[in-house]
Amino acid sequence: MRRFPLAFATFILTLGSFGIALAKSVIEVFLCAELVSIAFFYVFYIATIPAIFPRKTNSEAIFLGGAAKPPYVSSDEILSPQLPFILGKIDRSWELYYNAEKFKPRTKEKTN
Amino acid sequence: MNEAVFVPLFLLPISAALSVPVGLGSKNIRNALITAVFAVSLFINTFYLTESLGGGGFRIQMGEILVNAATLYMSELVLLLGFLGVLYSFRYIEEMPGNQLYYVLYQLFIAMMIGMSASFNILVIFIFMEASSVTSAVLVMFSRRRSSISAAYRYLILSFLGAIIILIGIFLQYSSVHSLNIADLASIPSQNIAMLATIYFFGFGIKAGLLPFGPFWLPPAHSEAPIPIHTLLSAALVQVAAFDIARILGNLGIVNIGLGYLLLAVGLASMLVGSLYSLLEAWFGSKRTGFHVGPRDICGIKRVWALSTISEVGYIVVFLGLISILMDSAVPREEAFLLGFGGALIHMYNHGFCKAQLLFDSGVVIRMTEAEDLSLMGGAGRALPVMKYSFLVGGLSLGLVPFTLGVRTLRELVIGGSTPISVSIAVIVTAGLTLAGCLSAWYRAFIARPKGELNEMWKVPKLMSGPGLLMGALILVLGTIFTLEWMGFRVFGTEEIAEAIRVLVESTVKAGA
To answer: Which value does ipTM take for this structure?
Structure first.
């Protein structure tokens, strides 16, 4: 049930894509294009809102507007987002562009 | 029956929707479903591409979606890279938790790119372009680094800027010709041609990564993305955006000499700046090149390829700019179109294949050395003896070396004779800088003394080594055909390729060609 909104958005997106192809007039194209846009925005926002506001995990509620309390954010939070759309914590092992868990330097680095 | 040509465009979104419930049950069945969908789509597209290149004005329309030879040509590149990329992803992404949304977005992204080249309605192109921005921006975040999220936001902001510019163009077009069809742009009042062409060029130019806006988003977004997504962005998306520029300007103001000089200026600047920055990145890193969003400066191997993308799109725009300049020098229209559009279309494949090969192989090297910073890499050639040499093919082709696919661009822009000497010199300098950048990256990754212990226990999966080898082989085979043809040999397929290029040039501009 938790994945129903995502499945519904994908369904609307597919429907809209078919609609664009089958539309007979500009207005119909625009209508279907709007459906596709909204579905895409939904998918995008349920991915991004939790990324920016990690403590507010109910992204659907925020997207629908007003159902959740205003999501306040601290400067610490904004650069340490969780990414619920990949169902895992942010990967800090590659934060510095090498695998901190596995990379073994061959030469001893100089330290001050 | 010909309506089957639309199957890839609809099959991919359907498969995207199905892959979530199927994937929750079994990952293997989901992977089999996605592989089958890509294989069927590629087979259908290849069949109709072969049919359409025989001439006879192949054109199938369903609503506002229109498929002709040029559309199928671009779809072929997107589907081929998408297919190889998804096979690569099965091993590359599989280790990460929660990859359901990755495959949904991946398939939608491919479908949106196909849609971008499958219409003459500017509004439909615009919608597909917007959809591709949203899907790809989320995919960039899948590196799961804080810097990848910053890069994705930067990408989205610049994409929306491009979208707003295009939207202004759409309003101007509709108010001028009361039509959203690109083919109707021929009847636009002459005083609006230059303005509308410039608006569309800069709007789509942002997406294609051209100067002046490209460097702000392209190096961070491309290099922060996972390898398969970086491949699609660099090797497919920018080519599709450049194709849209070619299609729109081909119907609008490509013969306008003022626009020709603008295209040439932007193209040459992108070529030179992109290749120089690519070399500087390989030597000195982001400390000198900038446009980096990470927490520390690096010599990013992926950043070398991202900066080189700006340069390669520059070639395509130079080809387009040459059309009006050649026509102004009394070169016949057909000859100028063949050089301009034909050269641009072939270079799209050259860049697409090379970048895909370099990136697929770079992903393997990154896993082997456990680093994507060239200053921490080295010695990979010991563990990857075949890739040590096959890696060079893409770099040589980007350097326009004979017997690679890049030879066609060398022939048209340097040796051909009809190109202005200043452009030829700029092309030689760019090719030299690009080649030096590629060889520097190769040396630092494969030959230089290792800075860390190699992950030699890791056995390279065939799904990760195969795509790069296939791309390398295609570059060499096609490059050999073009080189032998240039040397005057009668090679099997030469005449068919010449006829195919003529059909592609016509169908880029005309719906029914």
So the answer is: 0.80
